[in-house]
Amino acid sequence: MGASMKILILGHKLQYEIQNVTTAFHPGQKLETVYEKQPDWDVLTYLRAGRQNSYLLLLVKTESGILRSHRRVPNSGERYKQRCETAFGQMLYTAYSGLTGVVPKWGILTGVRPVKNLQQHMAAGCDEPALRQLFCGDYKVTPEKFDLAYQTAIVQKQVLSPVDLRDVSLYVSIPFCPSRCLYCSFVSHSIEKSHKLVEPYLQLLLQEITLTFDLIDKLGLHLKTVYIGGGTPTTLSAQQMDRLLAAIFARIHHPLEECTVEAGRPDTIDLEKLQVMRRWPVTRVNINPQTLSDQVLQNIGRRHSAAQTIESFHQARQAGFDNINMDLIAGLPGDSYQGFCATLDRVLDLDPENITVHTLSVKRSADLKYSQMVRYSAQDLPVEAMLTYTVERLVGESGYRPYYMYRQKNTLSNLENVGYAKPGTEGLYNIYMMEELHTTIGCGAGSVTKMVDPRKNLIQRSFNFKYPLEYTKNFSEICSRKHSLEVFYGDLFQV
Ligand code: SF4
Predict the structure, then answer these.
(1) Which of 12, 251, 365, 441 is the least crowded, having the fewest Cβ atoms under 10 Å away?
(2) What CDD domains does UniProt report for this protein, alphabetically (predicted)?
């Protein structure tokens, strides 16, 4: 194999699935996908559609020769594309696991939303044994991961009310942070470098929020949750936060299910800002340690201590918040199994209502490069064991339940992110957004308006400009894009 692994795709368009399964076994390996015959391929996939069946062939070059496998997939029947994907996935799984000894916990399941996948099968009438057979048998998911996804799906069924076509949530983006974390791939700007942008940005954001509520009212939509994220919204001053919340709540005349503010970084939180939030009906805050190791915090470019995080947590309680989420990341540079477990134990001592555990994911735009991250991967850093400890501690002993889950590209060992909550405190916005149950309207730089027709599982997206400066320069364009909501709901309500 050269510097990159060359995958030859012939006769089909299933390259996305094939790349993802390949990456699960070869993390950090550069892939090159080609579509025309050439001799120097490493993996060859071929599909030929016959009269009744399609013939699928996989060849994998190894040091001792070529591994060959093939399948026939009937052309008739439902979900033809998915059956071909699964067949290729299973052949790749067998070949790669034999060659590498790797057993990916999610098998050949590569999508972002494993629970949505489960929910769709449940809605089609699959019971638990049939789902287990499908996931653990066909998709090669381990029983441990199936159980986690299944429990999550059951919790969601318990906490969600029936979907209404007019339901929407609002996401508001504050794309500024006190400093940039090493692994960050968001559009967030360091407040030190872009301080001057904050006030003009906020002024336009308030206008976009007003326009958004005009459209919500005009279209007769029903706002269920609000999420103020970023970035770090608490980089705003107390007075700016007050103006933002005033602009939002001036237009809401019914009780929301939830309003969350990401108070992610303790170096931006103080009692005054928390009290401002409490004056408005903000119901949930995120105070995110990521780790409670000062050394690891330093490694990832965070300029605060673990003690500051704990102090912020107590301030949030003092301000009256009874629903606090704390985010942790498994697999941070320089962390260890013992270090991660100690962090989780200390967070549990604080007794937050929600704990969200992410697996480190590093995208191309992050300062930390994927190749660096892989050095900390599997052998060095037992992220799988960290996540297993998480489930044992939270679900087994402490009364939390998994309530939403998603997977990302380029995570260590291809693992997942899971939100855990004590019963009755689940972050509903997270479920609506992740399972794509209703429309999320995005306001602010880097946000996306995702319009959902739940009956047809149809999704349309409208993107805002990414960076604060772009946002301020192109504000009229942003306002005109918002009217895509009118087009979408005009069509939706005609039916
Ligand atoms: S706090 Fe979050 S958004 Fe801000 S730099 Fe760190 S990872 Fe990125």
Answers:
(1) 365
(2) Radical_SAM
